User: What shape does this take?
Amino acid sequence: MKFLLLNISKSFDSYIHSSRKTQSNPVLAPPLGLLYLGRSLEDEGHTVKLIDQPLERYPIEKIKKTISSIDAVGITVYTYAFHEAHNIIHSIREIDSDIPIIVGGPHPTFHPNTVLNEMPEVNVSLEGDGDEAIKEITKALQGTKKLSDVPGVQNMVATANLGGELNLTETATGLGLENIEYEPEQFPGLVYRIKEPKVAMLLFTSGKIVCAGARNTEDVSKAVEKLFEELSSLGLLH
Ligand code: B12
Assistant: This one.
C-alpha cells in the first residue's frame, strides 16, 4: 500500500504571527514517531511519503498533489495543534471522501475515547505506540485482519443513508445550533453531536451519514434512528 504520513504541529507562520512567542513555539525536530512508523511500513514492502508540516509553508498544496496516488493517510495529532490537524483532515476529506485516515500520537493517546467524536472524518484512531500496530492496521485495511483485534484501536465508524436529500442550512437551525458544527465554506458536511448515545454524526446533502465515536453497533442504530425521527418530525427529509 502507499501511505502518506503527516506530522501536523504548529507552523513557523503561526509562530511568527503569535504575540506569545514563548508558548508552543515550533521546533524543527525530526518527527520521530512517524519515522518509526515509516520504517515499519517499508520493512513490510509498503511505500511511504512523509510531509512534516512545521517545515512546509502550505502543506495542503503538497497534500493535494500527493493524495491521488495514495491508499491511506496516517497523521500525528498533538493536543496543542488539534485545530491545525482537524483543518487538514477536513481538507483531505474534501479531496477524497473514502481514503482511510488513521490518527495516532499524543492526542489520541491521552484522549482515546473522544477522538472519533471530535474528528468524525477519521476512520481509525490508535492509542499508544504505533510502529507494530500500523502493520496490523494495514492488514485490516487490506482485509486480512479484523481492526477490532488490534490493541489500542478505536474505529467504531459506521455509514448509513437517510434515503432522502437534506438541506443542511435548515437542518442546522432545526436541530439546534448549540449541537451543530456547520461551516460550508470550510467543509461540506454538518457535524451533529448527540449526548445519548454519545456519538458524532456527519451529515451530507445527499442524505449520507457517517456515525463516529459509538462504543457498539447498538449505539450506532440508536443514534441513526434518533436522528431519523428528529429529521422526520421537523419535516427536514426531502
Ligand atoms: C522529545 C519531546 C519534545 C522535543 C522534540 C519535539 C519534536 N517535535 O519532536 C521538544 C523539547 C522540542 C518538545 C517540545 C514541545 N513539546 Co514535547 N515531547 C517530547 C517527548 C518527551 C518525546 C516525543 C518523542 O520523540 N517520542 C518518541 C517517538 C518515537 O514516539 P511518539 O512521537 O510518541 O510516536 C509514537 C506514538 O505516539 C505513535 N504515533 C505517533 N504518531 C502516529 C501517527 C499514527 C497514524 C499512528 C497510527 C501512530 C502514531 O507511534 C509512534 C511510534 O511508536 C514527549 C513525551 C513522551 N514521553 O512521549 C513530549 C510531548 C510530545 N511534548 C508535548 C508538548 C506539549 C510540547 C510543547 C508544546 C511544549 C511547549 N509548551 O513548548 C513543545 C511543542 C514543540 C513543537 N511545536 O513541536 C506533549 C504533547 C501533549 C499533547 N497531548 O499533545 C508531550 C506528550 C509531553 C506531555 N506529556 O505533555 N517536545
User: Anything to note?
Assistant: The two ends are 40 Å apart (CA to CA). Residues 217-233 form the longest helix (17 residues). The CA atoms of residues 48 and 75 lie 13 Å apart.
